[in-house]
Amino acid sequence: MTTLTTAPRPAGSRVAGLGHYQPPTVVTNADIIARGVETSDEWIQSRVGIAERRFAMDETMLDMAEAASSKALANSGIAATDIDLVILATCTSEQQVPGGAATLASRLGIAAPGAYDLNAACAGFVYGLTSASNAIIAGQARNVLVVGSEKLTDYVDLFDRSTGIIFADGAGAAVVTVSDSARIGPVVWGSDGDNADAIVTDPVSVTLRQEGQTVFRWATSTMGGVAARACAAAGIEPSDLAGFVPHQANLRIIDLVAKRLGAANAVVARDIVTSGNTSSASIPLALSKMLERGEIGSGTPVLLVGFGAGLTYAAQVILAP
Amino acid sequence: MASTEEILAGLAEILNEVADVAPEDVSVEKSFTDDLDVDSLSMVEVAMAAEEKFGVKIPDEELPKLKTVGDAVSYIESNPS
Ligand SMILES: CC(C)(COP(=O)(O)OP(=O)(O)OC[C@H]1O[C@@H](n2cnc3c(N)ncnc32)[C@H](O)[C@@H]1OP(=O)(O)O)[C@@H](O)C(=O)NCCC(=O)NCCS
Questions:
Q1: Can you tell me the ipTM of this complex?
Q2: Of A214, A220, A221, the CB nearest to B60
Q3: Is beta strand A312-319 parallel, antiparallel or unpaired with respect to A301-308?
Q4: pLDDT below 70 — which residues of chain A?
Q5: Residue A213 and residue B63: Cβ atoms within 8 Å?
């Protein structure tokens, strides 16, 4: 019988560096009200936890992806020319065809990498990180660029009170590379297609709508358990975590999941307060800023939990770069 | 099947845990939003905790109809597990 040769496999994978980009235009709750949306600062802050967010006025989704990627490459110390796989997690591509990953690579001066887009909505970055790590561990890539970039304002009706106050624009990126030990833990992922219609783009208007309470109930009742399983899969206790970065969907969800998990020593990401919900960008955006501020020590465990439309979820422990 | 008093006491416990409501403030005529300051998202939490405690199903569509503590007590009584 013929057997095929497989690629040599490294001992593990690691995140080498992160970077982020946010558009300069700040939109406060007062700005939203000034546009004529029937809401209040008090309501938005108490139900969702957002004080302000960023809207991309001139940047495209790919522009933001490029800016975040350049910073991630610089922080990783890995040259663009050494990247051999590019994964772009987004659900707000401006075009259906082609996907954005190859164009992004070309703009960054990465020659002929494997390149694909990935749509797992707000869980997209963690799906991308897992895919990157798996490609490395299987010997199929050595240096992978993973990006979450979203221009949600292209898909949001500002006057829809359930989405217009929440969603925003931004990008975050990570460079993942080979490692002599495992520094990216196993993923715990899954989906709930029975609730596919809880977050959808309307087929006619192509704007997002969501059943807020269904999503709230699902996230608060299941993500604590998913987070705990990801810790167990990586062989650590929640109390060992130095950082906890859940998807920045709603501050009430973040606080409840953090409480259920009981990560007593972790800095919990609360980037939603000034960034809004940027879907697949929210986790790398929040994590990149926490690292920049020195809130998480190099080599300490950080738990990432993505969840959103699909419904999909993915959670994973990494050691901070 | 829990008695009305047991359901009321159970709800008071849940409301205290979820929204810091003092147990002595909880009585059947109280409105969740107007009297007890329990907002729509805390109501989702109350519903989830009540489902667990009393073995009932409280779908999201039912929540807006449960305006008072008494509404919740009768819902739980008339939808036994
Ligand atoms: C979207 C969300 C903030 C809405 O909150 P909610 O409490 O479910 O909102 P409801 O539609 O039930 O409305 C509750 C009340 O607030 C009011 N309201 C709704 N949106 C409002 C807004 N933007 N501003 C002010 N008031 C608002 C409603 O009119 C209603 O008032 P009433 O009780 O007097 O009729 C909340 O459900 C949520 O964040 N869910 C999670 C969604 C999520 O995380 N999605 C992203 C996943 S990736």
A1: 0.90
A2: A214
A3: antiparallel
A4: none
A5: yes
